[in-house]
Amino acid sequence: MDIKATTKTSAILEKALRAKELTKNEILHLFRTNNTMDLYSIFSTAQLIRENSFGNTVFPCGFVYLSTYCRNFCTFCYYRKSNDKCPRYRKTPEEVLKYAKQLEKSGVHLIDLTLGEDPYYTMNFNRLIDLVKTIKNETGLPIMVSPGVVSKDMLHELVKAGMDWYALYQETHNRELFAKLRIGQSFEARITAKQQAKEEGALIEEGILIGIGETDRDRVDSIIAMKEIGAQQTREMGFQPQPGTPMEDWLSPPLLDEMKYIALMRITNQDKLIPASYDCDGTKGLQLRLMAGANVVTSLIPPDSGLKGVAHAELNVDAGLRTVNSIEPYIKKIGLTYASRKRYVEYIDDYKKMLP
Ligand code: SAM
Ligand code: MD0
Ligand code: SF4
Prior knowledge:
Layout: H1 7-17, H2 24-32, H3 36-54, E1 57-67, H4 93-106, E2 110-115, H5 119-122, H6 126-139, E3 143-146, H7 152-161, E4 165-167, H8 175-181, H9 187-199, E5 203-210, H10 216-228, E6 233-238, H11 255-268, E7 275-277, H12 278-291, E8 296-300, H13 324-333, E9 337-338, H14 341-353
Parallel strand pairs: 1-2, 1-8, 1-9, 2-3, 3-4, 4-5, 5-6, 7-8
The structure holds S-adenosylmethionine (SAM), 5-amino-D-isoleucine and iron/sulfur cluster (SF4).
The site of S-adenosylmethionine (SAM) has 18 residues, from strand 5.
């Protein structure tokens, strides 16, 4: 069968394959088309580009949500301060180290230390710095820290302690929408923190939420903004409604929208890392996101740790299904394999060489 996209879509995809920058309108066209052949071609092109940049490999990443206390009121988030329906915990440094070691043993390439903007850490940053130092020394793995907005001094200390990646998602680059989602928080401060992290020598992960009231144009603006800020890893998270929050009655976006977004991030950011989060909907969603062009599997959690996810607090953690080994068959089934740790380190070293 001859699978042929419409003329306009083919021309745009060919331009992308020649590594030429796409215009906003071209990206919007790809995002808006619902022609089946077009969609098939978009996903095939995204896979081809991933293969050209990374081979058929993916990177598995561990996730430790070390404190679910937070001073903020993000309307989409289960862990917003006023939600009394969510489980609150703060793991001790010894516990966090234990999980990090478990993850290291299980074969992850990176440990993502994530927390709410917890006053226990925001009032005394040395606690987080010491934790990063210990985990770096004991595991030797690359480390991502997702602490929310922090000062330039703090970023400096985090990098010195061994933080390789600073993750901070803008959620949307539409300021009005941002104000409704991240109530009382500064849009600029969130951008500035990422720029400062870059200046301090950290790689950055930027991301947006899909399905929170954004338009197609907002989505495309975010693709461009994430590129402009120089993020080496960009992600989308499909919104999942959370009990006890102002958005609990909203619906999740169609998976196809997330897949299209991943494909467009891949087509426009060919050599960058793009996560497929286990946290969104387990293995089914994971495979489809990888088939759309993602190449990092995030949100792997040690079993029996009692640790929570973000979008799906409990999803398969204690069943031990969120591990490097248990998802391997699903990855193989779609023709992918895990890259080696060495390869991962080489990629991030290359990204660091390109920092200003
Ligand atoms: N507190 C830090 C912060 O907000 O930057 C780090 C936490 S980080 C895990 C929280 C991220 O998870 C958000 O930036 C958002 O992209 C994602 N997230 C939170 N709630 C979500 C939901 N209900 N559905 C999907 N993604 C969500
Ligand atoms: C994930 N639940 O990877 C995690 C989280 C935070 N840096 C990452 C959103 O899906
Ligand atoms: Fe707190 Fe982060 Fe959730 Fe916002 S997204 S409420 S800052 S944990």
